[in-house]
Design brief:
Largest sheet of chain B: 8 strands, parallel
Helix content of chain B: 25-40%
Organism (chain B): Pseudoneobacillus rhizosphaerae
Strand order of the largest sheet of chain A: 3-2-4-5-7-6-12
CATH class of the largest domain in chain A: Alpha Beta
Protein name (chain A): 2-oxoglutarate oxidoreductase subunit KorA
Pfam families (chain A): PFOR_II (PF17147), POR_N (PF01855)
Structural class of chain A: alpha/beta
CATH topology of the largest domain in chain A: Rossmann fold
Largest interface: A-B, 35 and 25 residues
Number of strands of chain A: 14
Number of strands of chain B: 8
Order of helices and strands of chain B: EHEHEHEHHEHEHEHE
Protein name (chain B): ATP-binding protein
CATH architecture of chain B: 3-Layer(aba) Sandwich
CATH superfamily of chain B: P-loop containing nucleotide triphosphate hydrolases
Oligomer: heterodimer
Number of helices of chain A: 13
CATH topology of chain B: Rossmann fold
CATH class of chain B: Alpha Beta
Number of domains of chain B: 1
EC number (chain A): 1.2.7.3
Strand content of chain B: 15-25%
Largest sheet of chain A: 7 strands, mixed
Chain lengths: ~350, ~220
């Protein structure tokens, strides 16, 4: 295949089409509108359907309806719009419907601004809507990785009958990089015999609902969901570890921030400070293993985020008191610089030996 | 005499802003008064206004929404454009937003500048979706012309694939641009190439008009500490 130069938002859309997604319901919001615009043009070309809903709430409920028929379906938004979708997302989880939802995060809280941020980490990893649930969250760091993870997102959704979130920041959505699309080998996904596509006198009615008025029955359903989350935790953890074997200090960052951190790490290594990086790719399930493997060897972890410190809570849980966990973050749409991260490493390491 | 106004249009993400910025710096070497007008109402990321300090340093006037409006997600343009449009001492570069929607912001100035015969350049990156074919690019040109109420006067071949660009990519884009030029009778003016590729494109530049450009819109990890 030939490489094309695309924006992150366009890549998510095209990767979804390659993953067999033919249905998109959405509402534009900066900085992810290009995704919506691209789908509007692209889906009719593959015999699919694009519909601009009257609101984010309408869009997520249209996704619910389409997912119920067993098709691959997607919606996307950015922080304030993503908040509006929470009720529908909780419904999708409760009804066990597969769908992919994309959040291209911007500065918050509230309307905030349209600059890049990662401050929706709590929202995507700790539930977001009501009820006991988790959703698999994938956080790509490059446009090529978007291609792979979008395919994975649809596969995970179908395999576990769950919504899956792709989370990036405004920068990832807007930046351009060369990417290559490929025809992925069709993965083994279970047959959707639960889909409400009509019966042909071949069994009872198929019902998709998140309503269960009987307490015992709802608890049983919750146990079933929890067992599923446990299975996802066992099978769907993704991360990248860079030079962690001999590291005295390990940076923890995801998405674009991990890329900014890389040059700071290289520079610190040149100065003789042994620094490595753990980059969670699945934010939920959070990768605990790379921390368990390193927490008795390192002097300290430093999480770097475009937030006031959210992932740091999961890092602390994984480190479980075995080592100190330091933090550097910028908020409100300010992107941390390589220099700032480098200086943070130096200050935690107690200076450079001269 | 050269045109007083040069407008950069093109498909969304084709490289208009980088070329507009480079052109402004170039023109400042031969003109005492250069204004760059950021008319991008489409996308609040990677716009000329992001490098305001560079323009100040080079004594180039940036016309764009200022202050808190600079980062607003609103389709607004600065009224300051009228001041420079009617001042004959200015050389003006217009950086429009992508596609026909971006060109819509140009349409309103038709009566202001029609007699000035602005040069309107179409920036082509043959590696972008929807303009990688002759038909796709021609449709984009037509739509832009309709919205801008102006005819495209020249095509720039800016075909690249970011940091992985090769001479073959540029040649491929040139071929596409030549076909579009033949079908539309719009002249192909030159190819723009990153100055990082100067050595590799010596032969290409001998037989083709080339303008080397610098990249100003950089990602936070692209400059090395």
């Amino acid at each position: 295949m030939v490489k094309v130069l695309m924006k992150g938002n366009e890549v998510i859309a095209e990767a979804a089409v390659h993953a067999g997604c033919k249905y998109f319901f959405g509402y534009p919001i900066t900085p992810q509108s290009e995704l919506v615009a691209y789908m509007a043009k692209r889906l009719p070309e593959v015999g699919g359907l694009f519909l601009q809903a009257e609101s984010e709430i309408a869009a997520i409920n249209m996704v619910y309806g389409a997912a119920g028929t067993g098709v691959r379906v997607m919606t996307s938004s950015s922080s304030p719009g993503f908040s509006l979708k929470q009720e529908g997302i909780s419904f999708l989880v409760g009804s066990e419907l597969p769908a992919v939802i994309c959040n291209i995060v911007r500065g918050g809280p509230g309307l905030g601004n349209i600059q890049p941020a990662q401050s929706d980490y709590f929202q995507v990893t700790k539930g977001g809507g009501h009820g006991d649930y988790h959703i698999p969250v994938l956080a790509p760091a490059s446009l090529q990785e978007i291609v792979d993870l979008t395919q994975d997102a649809f596969d995970i959704a179908d395999r576990y009958r769950t919504p899956v979130i792709i989370m990036g920041d405004g920068m990832l959505g807007q930046m351009m990089e060369p990417v290559e699309f490929y025809e992925a080998k069709p993965k083994e996904v279970p047959k959707k015999d639960w889909a409400t596509t009509g019966t042909r006198g071949d069994g009872g009615p198929k019902i998709i609902t998140s309503l269960e008025l009987n307490a015992e029955s709802l608890e049983k359903h919750n146990h079933h969901l929890q067992a599923k989350f446990k299975q996802i935790k066992e099978n769907e953890v993704r991360f990248e570890a860079y030079e962690t074997e001999d590291a005295d200090y390990i940076l923890v960052a995801f998405g674009t921030v991990a890329r900014i951190a890389m040059n700071a790490i290289r520079k610190a290594r040149q100065e003789g400070i042994k620094v490595g990086l753990i980059r969670p790719i699945s934010l939920w399930p959070f990768p605990e293993k790379p921390f368990i493997d390193t927490r008795d060897k390192v002097k300290s972890y430093i999480t770097v985020e475009m937030s006031a410190g959210q992932m740091i809570e999961d890092v602390r849980l994984a480190v479980n008191g075995h080592a100190p966990v330091d933090f550097f973050g910028r908020t409100g749409g300010v992107v941390p610089t390589q220099e700032e991260i480098y200086h943070k490493i130096i200050s935690v390491a107690g200076g450079v030996e001269v | 005499m050269k045109n007083k106004i040069t407008i950069l249009t093109g498909h969304f993400g084709s490289g208009k802003t980088e070329i507009a910025i480079n052109l402004a710096f170039q023109e400042r070497m031969v003109h005492s008064k250069v204004a760059i007008n950021d008319l991008d109402i489409i996308n609040p990321y990677y716009r000329s206004r992001d490098i305001e300090n560079e323009f100040i340093k080079h004594d180039i006037e940036l016309i764009a929404p200022k202050g808190h409006l600079a980062m607003a997600d609103l389709p607004i343009v600065s009224g300051e454009i009228y001041r420079v449009l009617h001042d004959p001492s200015y050389r003006i570069i217009i950086d429009a937003g992508g596609d026909k929607d971006g060109a819509t912001a140009l349409g309103q100035y038709y009566n202001e500048w029609k007699h000035m015969k602005p040069e309107m350049l179409f920036v082509l990156n043959g590696n972008r979706p929807y303009v990688s074919t002759v038909e796709g690019a021609m449709e984009t040109i037509e739509r832009i012309e309709e919205a801008a109420r102006l005819k495209v006067t020249g095509i720039i071949n800016n075909t690249n694939i970011g940091t992985e660009t090769t001479v073959e990519e540029i040649e491929k884009g040139l071929l596409l641009a030549e076909k579009i030029s033949r079908n539309t009778s719009i002249p192909l003016v030159y190819s723009t190439i990153s100055d990082q590729l100067k050595n590799e494109t010596v032969e290409f530049a001998k037989v083709n008009p080339v303008v080397y450009i610098q990249r100003y819109m950089r990602l936070p990890w692209e400059t090395f500490i």
